[in-house]
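DM from R.C. (forwarded with permission)

"hey, sorry to bug you on a friday — could you get me a structure for this? deadline for the figure draft is monday and I only need the backbone to look sensible"
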Amino acid sequence: MSVIHPSEAVTHEIHGARFVSFATPLSGSKELCAWRGEIPAGTKAPAHTVNREEILHLLAGELLITLDGDIHRVTAGDTVIVNPGATLSVENPTDATAVTWVTTSIGLSAEMADGTVITPPWAN
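My reply, with the result:
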């Protein structure tokens, strides 16, 4: 068993959001990754298509989640299930930072609209 303290989490920033990774292969995880996402007010992340299932639970705030073209307003306590092959975009239209907890399996990658594939270090 590994215990990851907040001071040991690794922080990454991309598309205006912050990802604080706790469970990764580098921290001892064998199958899953987990991170806290911090999406500042006014942030709109570009659409991307994921290759792994991703579970997003909103801890605080409010987000507009576009999932395969359907827009969903999610609020604290809501959970979004993003299936492999789904296209997702996230927007924080409010004036407060939204905080998420996300889990996925190791090996997540995201294909952007221009065909660029991103392999986020917090999920591999």
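R.C.: lifesaver. The CA atoms of residues 88 and 113 lie 11 Å apart.
me: no worries. The chain has a mean pLDDT of 94.
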